[in-house]
Amino acid sequence: IDPSEAERPLDDFASLNDFFTRRLRAECRPVNQDPEVLVSPADGRLLVLSPLAENAPLTVKNCRVTIASLLEDSTAARCFRRGAAVVVRLAPADYHRFHFPDSGTASACREAGRGLHSVHTIALSGGAPSFLNHRMISFLDSSNFGTIALIEVGAMLVGRITQTFTPGPVLRGQEK
């Protein structure tokens, strides 16, 4: 972790959680404004899965889950068939704030799932339903890429997902 990227000096953080959810200085993550580029909504390891079949499961770290299960909505899932999924997996050292990948109109969030299982490889290989953990789901009618489902998944020790945006018009790179 590069503490010089944080908006505040290390001495200003009251706790490890305060540092964990830190904001970064704007110049540390410049946002590509090219309308043909979908920007990553978060720091982390990226996995792109494409094209999506209507009922075929996504396989991430040997865990299989369908879009309908993630969304808890089979009607909405049909909108994403033949689309792509971008999975951003955050590690403890990553910046833990999300940003909109494009400008557009964002819906309000709704909660799904209640459990908080470990997302560790060992737990996943043992069958933990980690990708169905507590989630926040919203949709972005993006300016350049159609409708995007934004699904944030909590982990066993990081289960709280706080939204900092107001539904409605949003800008590419704006904090979610």
Describe the protein's architecture and organization:
By secondary structure, the protein is an alpha+beta fold. 11% of the residues lie in helices and 23% in strands. It contains 4 helices and 9 strands. The chain has helices spanning 16-20, 67-71, 74-78, 121-125; strands at 45-49, 58-60, 63-65, 85-89, 104-106, 110-112, 135-142, 146-153, 168-170. Strands 5, 6, 7, 8 and 9 form a 5-stranded antiparallel sheet that branches. Strands 1-4 form a two-stranded antiparallel sheet. The protein has a two-stranded antiparallel sheet with strand order 2-3. 18% of the residues are buried. The mean pLDDT is 88.
Give a short synopsis of this structure:
With 176 residues, this protein is of the alpha+beta class.
